[in-house]
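Reopening: structure tokens for the dTDP-4-keto-6-deoxyglucose complex, inputs below.
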Amino acid sequence: MMASRLIELNVHGDDRGKLIAIEGGGNGDSSIPFDIKRVYYIYDTLPDTVRGMHAHRSLQQLLVCVSGDCVVMCDDGLIRTEYSLNCPGKALYISGLVWREMRKFSKGTVLMVLASDYYNEADYIRDYSTFIKAVKHDTRLG
Ligand code: T46
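Re-run output (same inputs, fresh job):
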């Protein structure tokens, strides 16, 4: 199944500051629909940089701008949606065949990504026409 949607994370705030906890699977605080196997973060990006430009065959991910902001465009082969990730309490969940492009990084942005699996180049589709063929194939099977 292909999907992208925003998830509001639970913010614990008091006069010392704020804290957000993300738990994989389960029913805990700001729990997400997969077990976390990998965490990586993107930083030191230039404002006119475009990253991503690929889809994944089966990976699930949660994207959070823990500092700064950026825009993530998600394309499911039919509809393109732009998400503005502009606070640490807002997360973007992406599952399955979704073409993603990240752009408009503000200075000092740190984009943290939680992933459902280890890094595997074979899970990437880096060519847009191959992505569209995969979506059509998937839709036929579904
Ligand atoms: C995604 C978006 C949101 C690794 O060696 N291990 C890793 O876990 C990752 C994610 C990347 N790499 C290497 C592969 C490349 O040589 O780091 C280099 C940069 O990766 P890439 O060009 O794929 O980075 P982005 O920012 O275009 O895409 C990344 C993720 O790869 C991708 O899964 O969905 O962030």
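Helices lie at 128-141. Residues 128-141 form the longest helix (14 residues). Marking as resolved unless the reporter disagrees.
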